[in-house]
């Protein structure tokens, strides 16, 4: 298994061509084992197909099949295919249609071309001439809409379970792609903070972010969360008001960026008054978050990291006078969950919420979530090559706080202090962190420091 190393010095540039060749060798080894386990001779992966909106002639934004983009950095090539048979060079069936209505994909180029046989087709149906003859011997991984003739995705469980489990372990090539995505995200986050300080609306901040990233809604790995004041208490707030509130008190932004199909996921929170008590709480969460990032170590159970986060955040709640009970009691009784209702994070890579977060092994099975913590997205033990997000938060969500009263836990909270912080919405700090055999690599902090 690959072992990540410490961050490179800024002057050193990685040899992406060599890293991609090694990455491809790793994918072949994984595919060989997955096919053997499933009893198949070939791996066939469609890139995906455009979907038309119901009762309309407009298509939804294209989202490439993650199993396809794992092999090659192509994200805008619908109706293309990847074919791999053990012992043979991978084959890419690349649709480059005659089309004067839309931009046609450019000729194949990049590090991947020299490692694969590339077949250009002009219509989607031409792919049938180049797909394996023995359809029954193929593991076809994709969504049902990708079916072409007899090539209907079967997504065999043994093959998918193996490939998705091992996707948690990123190759050096993948780490470099995620590092580049983090640099884009950090640049855009800086632009968003400047727009906030200049008095922009949520929508205006969003536009500033997209401009700085050079990516719009169809390029970003997820929809930007840009929240001012109380909107920071809505975990997935995406409405984006066109006018700023009066007064502006706080700003929470959860926004990522993409690079050749790989994602970063970054969250930051700011107070308008950098000397007020809310900024002090942000700083306290930031310090706690850095300590949590340092827990991303080989052999550490991610579930325990989540539980430790609850205790750490409860100490902050106690420090700022928001709870009247001890931090330990706040965790035991579920009071902490009213202020921190989501998981500490998730795997990240080709998908923002990467797959197999609950996988017991590469043969399947499920690792349970801690009792009373239904929203945790990762329950595996950390190992070198895994990349995870660490995103603790403290929020002032009325419906969850009212439930504490309904459960007889109202005396555990200082409601006057809650009222003082409620107009600020909430706090979340999120970084992307690589597990290694030694100290973790924080891709996000590295990007902000560059």
UniProtKB/TrEMBL annotation:
Top-level class of the enzyme under EC nomenclature: hydrolase
Catalyses which reaction(s): Xaa-L-Pro dipeptide + H2O = an L-alpha-amino acid + L-proline
Any one Gene Ontology molecular-function term assigned to this protein's record: phosphoric triester hydrolase activity
GO BP field: proteolysis
Domain of life of the organism encoding this protein: Bacteria
Gene3D superfamilies hit by this protein: Creatinase/methionine aminopeptidase superfamily, Creatinase/prolidase N-terminal domain
EC number: 3.4.13.9
Binding annotation for Mn(2+) 2: 254, 265, 430
Keyword field: Dipeptidase, Hydrolase, Manganese, Metal-binding, Metalloprotease, Protease
InterPro entries from the UniProt entry: Creatin/AminoP/Spt16_N (IPR029149), Creatinase/aminopeptidase-like (IPR036005), PepQ_N (IPR048819), Pept_M24 (IPR000994), Peptidase_M24B_aminopep-P_CS (IPR001131), X-Pro_dipept-like (IPR052433), X_Pro_dipept (IPR022846)
Residues annotated as binding Mn(2+) 1: 265, 346, 391, 430
Role: Splits dipeptides with a prolyl residue in the C-terminal position.
Family membership: Belongs to the peptidase M24B family. Bacterial-type prolidase subfamily.
Protein name, per record: Xaa-Pro dipeptidase
Gene: pepQ
């Amino acid at each position: 298994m690959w072992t990540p190393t410490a961050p490179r010095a800024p002057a050193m540039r990685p040899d992406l061509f060599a890293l991609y060749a090694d990455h491809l060798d790793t994918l072949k080894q994984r595919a060989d084992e997955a096919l053997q386990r499933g009893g198949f001779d070939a791996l066939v992966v469609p890139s995906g197909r455009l979907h038309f909106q119901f009762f309309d002639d407009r298509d939804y934004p294209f989202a490439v099949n993650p199993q396809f983009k794992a092999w090659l950095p192509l994200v805008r090539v619908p109706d293309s295919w990847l074919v791999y048979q053990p012992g043979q060079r991978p084959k890419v069936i690349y649709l480059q249609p005659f089309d004067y209505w839309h931009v046609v994909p450019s000729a194949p180029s990049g590090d991947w071309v020299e490692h694969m046989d590339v077949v250009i087709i002009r219509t989607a149906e031409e792919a049938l001439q180049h797909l394996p003859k023995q359809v029954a011997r193929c593991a076809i991984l994709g969504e049902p809409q990708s079916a072409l003739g007899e090539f209907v995705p079967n997504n065999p469980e043994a093959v998918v379970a193996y490939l998705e489990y091992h996707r948690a372990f990123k190759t050096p090539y993948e780490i470099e792609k995620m590092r580049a995505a983090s640099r884009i995200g950090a640049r855009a986050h800086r632009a968003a903070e400047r727009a906030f300080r200049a008095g922009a609306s949520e929508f205006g901040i969003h536009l500033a972010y997209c401009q700085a990233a050079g990516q719009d809604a169809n390029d970003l790995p997820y929809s930007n969360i840009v929240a001012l004041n109380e909107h920071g208490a809505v975990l997935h707030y995406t409405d984006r008001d066109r006018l700023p509130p009066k007064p502006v008190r706080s700003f929470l932004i959860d926004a990522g960026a993409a690079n050749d199909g790989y994602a970063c996921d970054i969250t930051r929170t700011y107070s308008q008054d950098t000397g007020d008590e809310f900024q002090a709480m942000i700083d306290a969460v930031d310090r706690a978050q850095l300590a949590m990032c340092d827990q991303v170590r080989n052999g550490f159970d991610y579930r325990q990291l989540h539980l430790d986060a609850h205790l750490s955040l409860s100490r902050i709640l106690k420090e700022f006078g928001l709870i009247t009970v001890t931090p330990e009691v706040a965790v035991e009784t579920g009071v902490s969950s009213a202020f921190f209702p989501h998981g500490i994070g998730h795997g990240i890579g080709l998908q923002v919420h990467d797959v197999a977060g609950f996988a017991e092994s590469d043969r399947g099975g499920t690792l349970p979530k801690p009792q009373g913590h239904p929203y945790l997205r990762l329950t595996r033990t950390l190992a070198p090559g895994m990349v995870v997000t660490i995103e603790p938060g403290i929020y002032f969500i009325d419906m969850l706080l009212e439930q504490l009263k309904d459960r007889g836990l109202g005396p555990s909270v200082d409601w006057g202090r809650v009222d003082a912080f409620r107009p600020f919405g909430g706090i979340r700090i999120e970084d992307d962190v690589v597990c290694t055999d030694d100290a973790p690599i924080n891709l996000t902090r590295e990007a902000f420091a560059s």
